[in-house]
Amino acid sequence: MTPTFLVRMCPVRPVRFLAAVLLWTPFALPAEQVKVTLDPAHSTVEWTLDATMHTVHGTFKLRSGTIIFDPATGVGNGEFVIDATSAETGNSSRDKTMHKEVLETKRYPEITFLPKRVLGKLPPEGNFTLQVEGAFHIHGATHEVTLTIPVQRTGDTVQLSSDFVVPYHDWGMKNPSNFFLHVSNQVQVKITATGQLTLTAGH
Fold first, then answer.
1. CATH code linked to domain 30-201
2. 3 and 27 in contact (C-beta within 8 Å)?
3. Looking at residue 26, what DSSP letter applies?
4. Are 184 and 155 in contact (CB under 8 A)?
5. DSSP assignment letter at 104
6. Chain center to CA of 78
7. Rounded distance, CA 115 to CA 92, Å?
8. What is the largest CA-CA distance in the chain?
9. Is the distance from CB of 76 to CB of 132 less than 8 angstroms?
10. Distance (Å, whole) CA 129 – CA 115
């Protein structure tokens, strides 16, 4: 092999090698994120409270709800906002006590849930379940909770629900029991909602 041939070939090989590396090395694409936006007009927040001789049924209004998460890592964010001032049971006297002495809605007009981590597979259609970890903020305090949320997906439309217990007395709220009436220290809450699912490129 002549020196002239070596001189001509040496600069070419690194270029070809670099081109091969660029062609075969996978580029890091932005992670795909899932965003679910709830429709307050098609969502309900119901609650029940066991009391002496009967069960109290009540409702809240959902003001807004959004959850965003990366299915690959589970990292999530977003916010669910419930209007605490909308709480009602159908009994004006009982509602007045609830707002003034238990929820103290003049001081704490909102109840929020901030998702932090979402676990679960997302199929293109059908039923699946998400485990959503996050911060539940009520009555001026924050509590770490995990919600189990069954979801039904039809195209870009999702229907979800979640049942969970709020130990309101342990969380610093007043139990309205008196000599004649005994009330449970916890409330059973059920949320049902309809929303839209979109896929976006992550950051």
1. 2.40.128.110
2. no
3. P
4. no
5. -
6. 7
7. 34
8. 108
9. yes
10. 15
Mean pLDDT over 44-69 rounds to 95
* CA gyration radius, the chain: 27
Tell me what the mean pLDDT of segment 130-136 comes to: 97
Q: Measured between alpha carbons, how far is 139 from 137 in angstroms, rounded to an integer?
A: 7
Strand partners, 49: 56
pLDDT score recorded for residue 13? 55
- Whose tokens are 């009330």? That residue is 183
Strands (E), the chain: 32-38, 44-51, 54-69, 76-88, 110-119, 126-138, 141-154, 157-166, 187-201
Q: Specify the range with the lowest mean pLDDT, choosing from 26-30, 78-82, 194-198.
A: 26-30
Q: Are 110 and 83 in contact (CB under 8 A)?
A: yes
Give 138 or 121, the one with higher predicted confidence: 138
Helix (H, G, I), strand (E, B) or coil at 43: coil
Coil/strand/helix, residue 52: coil
| Gap between the Cα atoms of 108 and 99, Å rounded | 10
> What is the torsional sign of CA 192, 158, 81, 173?
positive
pLDDT in tens, 73-127: 999 999 999 999 999 999 999 999 999 999 999 999 999 999 999 999 888 899 9
pTM: 0.81
